[in-house]
Every structure is written in structure tokens, then in C-alpha cells.
Task: structure prediction
Amino acid sequence: MTTLDKQEQLIMRALVRNPRSSDNRISALTGVPVRTVSRKRARLERDGVLTYYTGIETQATGTGRFTTQHMLLIKFKLGITRGQIVQEIRSEPNVANVFSELIRDSYIAEMDGHIALVMVVEGESDSDVADNVQGKIIPSLQKNHGEDSIQELRTIRLLAPIRRLHNYLPMVNMEEGFIRQSWPDDAIFVE
Result:
């Protein structure tokens, strides 16, 4: 566990606002010396506390590629372990190609004492999602864990995101891909 000091909190808040900010810009915004910003930022990145990625909005407000999202809850039978699921993810060739198109987010979970997967699957329509789940995702899981490996499957149709990664509220505090400048610093969670 990493406890963030006051300077690191200032640096993190600046990066939450704009992850493309240079160390010089962060120093100017926070008052933290630029060499300290560089050193602390590099350590936070190396330690895995600070990561970056680009989110591509594929729904109507973005590229418009997909029009629907469904959350899947896939509960496995007893005896399937977290380690088996992780190994499958690492070795499954579809993870790198087909599934990157279908699955927006995914998590290993626990449901009622069973290992489970939670996935957000996108599609061009509800029936497209159903076809991809039944024709691609489920067969892949059954191939790796057995025909009787899935004990339960639940789906929830998602309508719109409200909050992402603690701080990003697309309908409230986002403008042109960044947190609005008027959003208060104390409303940015970094601890």
C-alpha cells in the first residue's frame, strides 16, 4: 500500500485533470518543484499507483460504432479457480483480437462463493450482443473450462455511464475529454 504525501496528492490531482500535462506544467500549477514532480511521478508510475490509458467512446456520443452495452455476470461452477480464469485469459488467442472488440471492460469476481466474470459487452444492437455472447464468448469459456462450467448467466442492459474511475462524471464534470477547469480540486479523489 502506498500512502500519498501532500505533494503527490497535488501531482495526482493535476494528472487527473489532464494526464497529458508535462512535469513543468504540473510544477507551475501545484508549486511543487519540477524535479520533485519528475521524481515522484516516475516512482508512482513504476510502483503501479499511476497508470495511463486512452478511453475510446464507442457509443453515440463518440464513434457511434456500438449502440448498446450489456453487463454480463457469468457464474462458474464450484471448483473453477481464479488462477484457472487468469491462465485462460493469458493463453486465449481471442483475448487479443475478437474479444477486444466485443468486451469493453471485464473483471474477475466472486458470486455466492463461486468465481465469476463480470463483463461489459458492446454491440450494434441487443440481438448483436446476444449473438456474440452465445456464439463467441460462452463457447470460448466452455472450451477452456468444460461444457458444464457455467452455472449462471445474467445480463443487464446499460443505458449511460454516470461515473468512471472515481473522478470522471461525463454528464457533469467533463468537457472535450477533460475535467472542467471549474471543477473543484477537493472534489478530485486521489487517496
Summary: The chain is about 40% helix and 20% strand. The first strand starts at residue 68 and ends at 76.
